[in-house]
# Entry
Amino acid sequence: MALRLLLDKLSYYLEVKEVRRVERAYIFAEQCHEGQLRQSGDPYITHPLAVAHILADMHMDHESLMAAMLHDVIEDTGVTKGQISRRFGRPVADLVDGVSKLTGIEFQSKAEQQAESFQKMTLAMSRDIRVVLVKLADRLHNMRTLGVLAPAKRRRIARETLDIYAPIAQRLGINDIRLELENLGFAAMYPLRHRRLREAMKAAKKNRKEVVGEIHQSMEIRLEQEQVEATVKSREKHLWSIYRKMREKKRSFRDIMDVFAFRLIVTSVDDCYRTLGMMHNMFKPVPGEFKDYIAIPKANGYQSLHTVLVGMHGVLIEVQIRTVEMEAMASYGIAAHWEYKAGRQTADVNQRRAARWIQGLLEMQQQAGDSLEFLEHVKADLFPDEVYIFTPNGKIIELPSGATPIDFAYSVHTGVGNSCIACRVDGQLTPLSEQLESGQRVEIISAEEAQPNPNWLNFVVTAKARSAIRHYLKNQQHDESVDLGKRLLDQALNRLGTRYKELKKSQIKRLLKDTGASTFEYILQQIGLGNRVPFAVANVLVPKSKRKPVEENKKSTLPVMIDASDGLLLQYARCCHPIPGDPILGHISPGKGLVIHLESCRNLVEIRHNPEKCMALSWSSKPRGEFPVELKVEITPERGFIAALASRMTEADATIEHVSVDEKDAFTSIVDVVLTVRDRIHLADILRRARGLKQVRRIYRVKN
# Structure
């Protein structure tokens, strides 16, 4: 009976020979699953059949429906991909294989496994988007039959559905499936809250019936008068979206239910704008609430006009206006491509949007350090509320709400993001951390030698920007740690009477064998990161028999030259705040790399003469950057003195990071200041300017 219903449904839009192929796939699947039961006790074949029904409602092609029938045979029976290929063709076999590989997403809640399987899904999507459409239909039927599972498993599957599957459906524009997945997930995740809200909705419906009918009728009469062919629907608010609004916006149920929602479906784009004019003429529009997603579609291809009106009795009315085709796209998204594939432009645009998004996922996958990091990026990318930004050439870039110029730069091109130094928004220089708004025109200013700033990770919101910044910083850290490792090893070898450049291949081979490391570069990286002691590596490279006496070689041990541009691997000790010009020593700290201290720092007393933990350093001839330094100022307290002191310091081009004041006695206060300077000469200028204030009794630098 269920099969007959499906075949009747398919005969409306598929050719007879295609319907027969779907029927053949069903018969084969039924034979393969014979004797297998679902946890509910139903024959297993009821599940593939139900999945095919869901896809038929979306008017999917016959190959997708065949894959739906066969999607569990590789996993649950002895049938191979080759057998399916010979019997039903290569495209169907590839789809079934793709869906089978995704079943690994059903785990016992281990985040790494969930993330790994999501990576598989991305690769499957990139080959054929239909794989994911079959998987979404499979998940939807599993959610509909979730009741037979244990509560803990129900909650786990519901959480996964709300976190990953529903957002993917939204990103692909498949609204009907997204809404049902969300509401089923909500019911399984929070059964009590779901029941309470559902009861409140029923009660609210009775009170609203009269008002909804009145608005509905007035809209229909007006459209008829203007001879616009249209269908007026009052829109149901969905429980999950109501719950999320209540939780995120801290609004009461009554506040949300006070808004009445309607959808007007017309025949052409011209009628959309005409109808909008009629609605604005009938009811007063609310300023700032009009959105034109027809001229600028959403990232998932969604198109519609949105407006909010003040209706009779002062009630708020949300109105969506769209064409029949836009309605199909809103309901079925990327799946509508197969229904409209006979040359309709919107479907092709929608298909390209999905392809671009999936290509972006693949880029992120290549750049992410591990599957968990990839999943974190993707989750960020799955929940966008878009803003639309213009490039200087007038091209529109879609970004999530809260996006910054850095997000914009990376969305244009990774190279533009990596070399970004400043930006102009509508012609005005603007901070890179400022949030962008729809309609702004953004111009990125870049420089060849520029590189991403780790601080950008604190404010970027797009997954692409976050992923690209992390990828660049990881590569930069690798290169820097290898370079620093070379320099530290060279100094250690100096003590043994040789140099890095004099190492032979035989010595390096012996080192790799003794340490079990895969490459010499890896050992250098570990030295640079502080995870291996350079002196210990040098001891393995140069056996005792080949060393020169230490006394003879002491004079040749040169300090390691350092520069602020060495960047990520140099840490400046907070206990003594070294600055260029100070005599310094380096302390190798596991995971942190090289920590730089003043030579006189008390924290180095015990390790100062241990070559395994401490080493001589010197500044490069022209170190660049700003370095923190701590000053103490003894003053006679007077009104406005802190402002005067800060003014003197900033006049000398110093940046004050921290100020605190303590009373020493009734006549003296101690001001503690942390500020950034370029070097000792710059510091001397600041001290001279501060001493010029009459209230200053004494000012000195704190060195631990």
Notes: The longest strand covers residues 655-665. The chain is about 50% helix and 15% strand. The mean pLDDT is 80.
